[in-house]
Each structure stands twice: as C-alpha cells, then as structure tokens.
C-alpha cells in the first residue's frame, strides 16, 4: 500500500511538472510572443518575463524584436538623365506587429525577405528614375535614400514591420557604360593634351621670334657700333698719314713705295709685273746706285 502510494505520488508530481511546463513560458528581451490556439492567434506578448497559457491547447510563436537585415542583389536602374547604374543596397527593419506579421507573412523571416526583394527595387527605381547621376554621387544621396526608405516603409507597414533604413552600399556603371566613359575620358585627355601642346608650340614660336628679333637688333646695333668705330679708326689713320706726309713728303713717298715693293714681290716666284724701265714704280730703285756712288765719292 505504501509503495503504491509512493508511485502514485511520483506520477502526480511528474504530471504536475509537465502541466506546469506546458502552462508557463518565458519571453526574453530580444523577442516577442504570439499565442495561438488551434492555429488562431489569441494574444500578443511583448513584455519580457514569465507568462502562462492554456496547456496542450495554446502554443507560442516567437518573433525577433531586434533590428533585422535584408541584403538585396545588385539592381540595374535607369536614372533621370537616362544613364544606367548598378546599385547595391541593404535594408534594416524590425517586426513591430507580430499579429499582422503572422497573418500576412507567416512566422518565418525568409518570407518577409522575399516580399522586400520586390518592394525595395521598385522604390529604388521610382526614386532614382527622377534623379541625375550627379545627385546620386553627391551630398543629395542622403535625401534620396530617405525618400526610398519612406516609400519602402509605407509599403512594408501592411506586413507588420517598420523599415528603419535603406542605404546604398555600392554604385557601379555597367561594363559597356564604363568602357564608353573610359573612352570618353581618354578622348578628352587627348584633346586637352593636344591643346596644351598647341599652346606650348605657340608660346615657343613667340619666344623664338622674340629672341630672333632681339638677336637681329643686337647684331645690327653691334654692326653699327663696329662701323662707327672702324670709321673713327680709319679717319684717325688717315689723319696720322696726312700728318706724317706733311712732315716729310719725300720719306712718306719712299715708305709707301717700300710697302708696294713688299706686297708686289712678297711671294717669291709668284709675282709677275710687266713694266717699262722708265716706269715711276722703279724710281727709288734707280736712285740707289746714284746714292751709293755719292756716298763712295764722299
């Protein structure tokens, strides 16, 4: 009898423990609970702590209350200036209404990410379709991303979530556009280089022309100065010769004749003169014998 009583008591304790575990559940700070009964939601629990439910009839579904992320694939969009751009974005959201989320999406996070995969690209194309490339690449990007976030948030609100942020992680040009832009940049750089070379050639020609003009002026001035100096020298030489001739005309005539003899007979065997013996050119040579005889007589 005592043994049966002990066994019955143990079974009762086990059943009470199972019943207690089926009745009580804990909600953590990072989650929120939806209590469902036979698949139908009956209440939402957002406060952390120990809570109770009807055992074996009601179940709980946990939803993360932290910030969740969705990283979409790169999307090619056409901007307001008809340029194509590949945009890579990421989205941050949180579940704000577990009941509406459960009724529209279900209880998995994969389902809401599938919904966002169509909502985010649509908002992205609508907003960027009105913006030029310079706005996307400038400080206006913050305003553009806020517009995209607001549109995504309005559409995602019906699923019981709140979109906190949508950001552009990276923007790239399509491969064909990139090559076209690189070709345009190369052409532009070549044009600038040609203009720079042309301007340099023009400046060089101007400098050379100026230098040549200055050289011509300097040479002309130097030639004029040389002519003046040469003229002054010749004038001075003529004056000296004139003074010498006036002092002793006979000696001056003799000295000039000696110079003429030196120039006429300077290169031996190469000078030839055809003159008569009575030519005035030999008058001083004719006087030499007479002078010698006069000297011997004295």
Structure overview:
The chain contains eight helices and nine strands. By secondary structure, the chain is of the alpha+beta class. The strands form three sheets. Strands 6, 7, 8 and 9 form a four-stranded antiparallel sheet that branches. Strands 3-2-5 form a three-stranded antiparallel sheet, with no helix packed on it. Strands 1-4 form a two-stranded antiparallel ribbon. A hairpin with a 5-residue loop joins β7 (75-78) and β8. α3 (109-128) crosses α5 and α6 (175-247) packs across α7. The longest helix is centred in the C-terminal third of the chain and has 73 residues, at 175-247. The protein is rod-shaped and about 190 Å long.
Task: Please identify the top-level CATH class of one domain.
Answer: Alpha Beta
CATH topology call of one domain: Tetrahydropterin Synthase, Chain A
Helical percent range?
A: 55-70%
SSE topology string: HEEEEEEEEHHHHEHHH
Mean pLDDT: 79
Strand fraction band? Answer: 15-25%
CA radius of gyration is 59 Å
- Overall geometry comes to rod-shaped
The CATH superfamily of one domain is: Band 7 domain
